[in-house]
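Aggregate trends can hide what the representation actually does to any particular protein. The sequence in question and its structure tokens are set out directly beneath this paragraph.
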Amino acid sequence: MFILLRKYSIRLQLLCIGGVILLLLSGTVVWSYHQILNITYKRNSDYTIELISTIKRNIASNADTINRILPNIAYNEQIQEYLMEQDRLKQYELHGKIEKLLVNLKSMKQGIVDIVLVSTIGSSSYNCINCQEFIPLNEIPERTSAYYSALSLYPYSNPMKQVVYVGVPVYDRHNQVPLEAKIGYAIMVLDVNAIAPQIDSMSDKTAGSFYVLDRNRVVTSSNDLSQIGKRLPELEDRIASGTRNDEFRKDGAPYVIHAEPIPEIAGQIVSIYPTKELFRGLEEVQHLVIGTFIAVIVVMYVLYIAISHNILQPIRSFMTFIYGLRAKGLNNLNKRVALEGYAEISIMAKQVNALLDEIDDLASKLIDSKTHIFELQLMKKQAELQYLKSQINPHFLYNTMETIKGIAFVKGVDEIRDMTDALSRVFRYSIKGEEHVALKEELDIVEAYINIQQIRFVDRFHVRYDFEEACCSCKVIKMVLQPLVENAVFHGIEPALHNCTLTVGCRMEDHRNLLLWVIDDGVGMEHAMLEQIRQSLEVQPPASNNINMSRERHVGIINVNNRIKFAYGDQYGIMSIDSVPGEGTKVLIKIPVIGGSDV
């Protein structure tokens, strides 16, 4: 870090060091405060979990007591006889007996509002006058130890109160009806406080609210009595999925919710408490931390001002002097720096003044040296001009070719005349100034070159042109096809012992690219040579002697590829070279479509 900082100004270094110290201090304070919050949060969470566990144990204990009472009711012989009796007189006699039994059973558990018996094979019932309208008998499973209904109203109490129905199906024990037949239901009507009576008496010092929900997620018991009988719609999704210490916002304030299932009653117990209640009393810690942090910043700022005045001020004066030298140039070299400060800055000022003295001496020498260099450069330019003047005038070659062409015509040697005419066209085309030409002009030069070679090889090969008409007006770089045709003739057709066909073609691809190809059915290439050529097109500079040899032999292909990539980009150039020994070679080029006169 210090190695990196020494590249910058002292002011910036001091600011960076101060910033790092503040960051470390801030990180330490934030981490410590965060640890305090975590400890507080964890303790409250543990306390909440302990309370919920206590409530769940109480509910489980109450449910266990109720689950022991209900089977005693359902399988009591007098109650079974009462539910199966069809005679009205005997029903009346049995009613008095079971009433005493049920009164004794009700006294076993506080909070039992009533006990209801309903027969499914006869007309006998106990404490049931149209009770099927408010007791959910159809919800009770066929086989269950105890089914706890959702919170409901019990119309026979005065005043009418909210209760929970706990029911079991009753089956015949003595096989007086068909085997395993259900003879009725035993229903226990419970006050809501009989399930979790401790919640509404919890200490007011407890943060948050606790709710016991029935199977329909209706509050059956809570330390917030106003919520009993209601739902918690804003928490439906969170309660349904079950959660532990999940944070959410309600009316803009953060809350923490903890929900656990109560399998004994198919319900849930939920605790909700505001986050700010968790951290009550930490405001003083916050104020102390902020005050300490501000005091540290003030002390660091005072130290920074003192260091800046004693160290940075002389350096700033020195930098102002240096900038003045740069602004006024050599005209200000006679001025010298004068600094007052600590020993190091005084030594630096003396050394700079000595350096300026040396610069004065060297300035005149530098001017003399530059004058001499300019004279040498002028002599070099003059020599280059003389060299250019000594070059052969192209018109001399044109005139010589026209003379040869005329002599051949007079002598009647048509081959010499045609070759000279074609060579003249190729020469004029290759040295003319334009770098980009229409594809039709390039094709004309290819035809002139092929005419020369056909005269030379005396019908050893014939040519097929396959060009789309729309391609001929597109612009291409000059001499893009002729080197490839030359390679095909010299390396493919000339060594062949049979008549060959040379194909030159072009087509347009998606109106954006031109695909040009040169194909011969000559001797082809071995796989090793083909791979060397492909590598020479990809590697620059070549990576091996073999590739160098390939480049020397196939310099035309490599030059064409490099020129295309330089002119249009790396996505263009020679796209593929395919060759089979004895069958021939195909070279495919891609260049962009460019029309009109501007490229």
Observations:
- Residues 395 and 401 are 10 Å apart (CA to CA).
- Residues 283-391 form one domain.
- The first strand starts at residue 112 and ends at 119.
- Residues 385-393, 541-551 have pLDDT under 50 and may be disordered.
